[in-house]
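--- STAGE predict ---
source: upstream dedup step, 1 unique chain passed
mode: sequence only
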Amino acid sequence: MPCRTNSRKPLKSNRRTPGLQITNPQSALLSNHEVLLHLQEQEAEYTGTDGTGRKREKPAGLKDCLRDTLEYLSAHDHNCTLASPTQKHPSRPTTLYKGPHSLFRALAPHYRLNKAEFLQLYNLRPTTEVELQVVLEEYHTRFTDAQLAHMLEVIRQVFEEDESSIPDGVEDLHMEKVANKLEGAGATRRVKRRAV
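--- STAGE serialize ---
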């Protein structure tokens, strides 16, 4: 479930309540695990289990959205073969895609994948070539069968690594840039149209 955060700024308006305008759409992609943790925090705020002890009534739309999404992300696991990130890394979602133990650090030196592919690999955790082929665009022209098998092995190793073997704070380490830059990671350039 790729969710996107948006940068927003108030609109200049004559009304007392300013609206919001999206200035930078799709500024970040969130994994299912991050969305689940965020929604669990939101749920805790309303139920009073966040340490404040203050229970509040949820708005109807939010109540339904929280219930349905939490149920889906908690119970619906796309792949039962590999441990889900919420089981192996319950409170550290970024461990698997930031820092030296990440899926990105394991795959990027060998394979040129775009951001959406990394996110789908993280969310779906493929264990067969067929599942991997669904995630990778034009896999038959970009990768050999041996490379696909290697990718599956790396994915398995990253997701099966025990959290206790990963030191605290590795997600925040300053890492050298990987030479093989992600496709689609650069700034988008718009072509300016000339007035006729």
